[in-house]
Design brief:
With about 50 residues, this protein is mainly alpha-helical. About 80% of the residues lie in helices and about 0% in strands. α1 packs across α2.
């Protein structure tokens, strides 16, 4: 794989890890947002 692809994968993994961390750290806020945007989980992820 090219260097650019590796960088993209690292950024994607870091983004997902951050999302999981926020979900574990603030489950109350995450539950509210997921309830409001239940049909748009991608948008909820981008809020963080």
């Amino acid at each position: 794989m090219s260097r650019g692809c590796i960088v993209c994968l690292i950024l994607l993994l870091a983004f997902l890890a951050h999302g999981v961390h926020v979900k574990l750290a603030r489950p109350d806020v995450w539950s509210i947002l997921r309830g409001v945007q239940e049909n748009q989980p991608v948008v909820t992820l981008f809020l963080y």
